Amino acid sequence: MIADDHLLFIDGLVLLLNNEPDLQVIEVANDGKELLECIKQTEPDLVLLDINMPKLNGLDTARYIKQSNPNIKVIMLSTYNEDHLVEKAKSYGANGYLLKNSSKAELLQTIRLVAEGKSCFPYRLPREPTGFDGNDQFLKSFNLTKRETEILGLIKQNLTNKLIAEKLFLSVYTIETHRKNIMQKLGLGTPGALMKFIIEHNL
After folding, report:
1. What's the CA gap between 57 and 51, in Å, rounded?
2. Which residues contact 120 (CB under 8 A, 6 or more apart)?
3. Which domain holds residue 36?
């Protein structure tokens, strides 16, 4: 089964996988809740599961699948190259994690390895440094958390709360809360003052 909210992406995957003699797509879903209903009707051997979906995200869906049907193999498909998401996927019982820009060969290899009972979390290039590494001690003096420091680095890049939320796989509300906490800890009153602080301290 495949679950993804991008219809063209699903169509492409179905064509690709059904052309393989040992693979067959038996059902598709556009969100996590729909997938869970499908699984009740037809239990698949393996699920390709997008992380970012409406109604119920892929990580929570994977956890529900593993709780009720532990024999079903789950491979997370994601555009997010983030260590904390890979670790969360593992902790929720996923058997594999694959970036959406992977090649056809990588996809098929991952599916077949997981189908054989192996875990498959392919090597991923580490993320680009935010440029804040050298300022850790300075920022720690304000009691900023690791997450707040990470968000400060993204604010420096002039990213909106929505873009930061998408990049970190968090809600916009969570980012807004972190931003307020950062400004409070730094003793700043406006977004302009925050940018000025970043520039003045060469963060």
Report:
1. 6
2. 75, 95, 96, 97, 98, 109, 110, 113, 114
3. 2-115
Q: Quote the DSSP letter at residue 29.
A: E
Q: What is the pLDDT confidence band of residue 135, given thresholds at 50, 70 and 90? A: low
Domain boundary (66, 83, 115) is at 115
Among candidate residues 115, 142, 158, the one where a domain is terminated = 115
pLDDT higher than 60, residue 120: yes
| pLDDT tens by residue, 86-105 | 888 889 999 999 988 888 88
Give me the mean pLDDT over the 70-99 stretch: 88
Structure token digits, residue 16: 């690709």
Q: Are 3 and 47 in contact (CB under 8 A)?
A: yes
Count of domains for the chain: 2
Angle at 20 between CA 12 and CA 15, to 5 degrees: 20
53 and 90, same structural domain? yes
Collapsing DSSP to helix, strand or coil, 14 comes out as: helix
Say if residue 62 is in the same domain as residue 8: yes
> What pTM was computed for the model?
0.61
pLDDT value of position 168: 87
